[in-house]
Amino acid sequence: MIRRTFLAALAFVAALPAAAFAEAPLKVVATTGMIADTARQIGGDQVEVKGLMGPGVDPHAYRQTRTDIVAMTRADLVLWHGLYLEAQMEDFFDDLGRKQTVVAVAEGVDKGKLRAHDDYADKYDPHVWMSPVLWRDVVIEVQDALTLARPEAAELFAANTQAFLAEIDALSAYGEQMLTAVPEDNRMLVTAHDAFGYFGAEYGYEVLGVQGISTQSEAGLNRIGELVDTLVNRQLKAVFVESSVSDRSMRALIEGAAAEGHEVGVGGELYSDAMGELGTYEGTYIGMLDHNITVIAGALGADVPQRGMNGNLSAGF
């Protein structure tokens, strides 16, 4: 009886599909939401991704918590941005990299494509996710890191990467269409900090931030005064706040312009260093930039689709 039961069990196991014996998903920890979403898009059901920095979190000032340390030391793969974005965590990653696989995915972008950092002579502007063209390079770096960690899933990762890159190309084309519809005199983007330099370069916009590339840089009264003069002289009607940066400096600009007799409003809230809520369209890389493109173009004078490129934006414009 026991023998027949054992043989029946063996027959049942032999009949199971190979997928039933698949390895557990790779445990991946990513610092920013943009990297976490990219890893999910490429990895599919082969990965279990934990993002450390949620909505509204400033990566320039972020320090790892005890929970973060536990998650990273237990992960199969840790993905961070690099380019001095996570400035407060660099020493930690240097140490962690001696013990396990840690990859700075934005460091793979050709340095010839990068903007110089305004505060550090030997570093670069890290905000490459603002350019769909540059983010393609980061996508490939994430694919390579996942493939090295799980080579048997290489074909799946390659197929998912190509599908994701096609989405990014469609996003880039949408940005070109919407942002070039803005009257040329209005193509100036005034924000809390200089996170949109690559965005401006890609779409032909002048970008002015109250603070520099890092939110840790100081915004002096002289800088506020210069930007107020620019708003008044150019007769610009809109400035933009950021989801991960205080709006205090933008209020100062609006008040300063009002004192000069010029009315300026908030064109909308943009996602700069962090995405929207996890589980929402704006909580994906595509949704984040779809939101930004649609808000900016609409506020500066273009006729935009009410709910963005694919009709998926949470709020209409």
Automatic annotation (TrEMBL):
Gene Ontology molecular function: metal ion binding
Any one biological process term the GO annotation gives: cell adhesion
Subcellular location: Cell envelope
Signal peptide: 1-22
Keywords per UniProt: Metal-binding, Signal, Transport
A GO cellular-component term linked to this record: cell envelope
Coiled-coil region: none
Superkingdom as given in the UniProt entry: Bacteria
Main location: other
Family classification: Belongs to the bacterial solute-binding protein 9 family.
Name the record gives this protein: Manganese/zinc/iron transport system substrate-binding protein
Species the sequence originates in: Ruegeria conchae
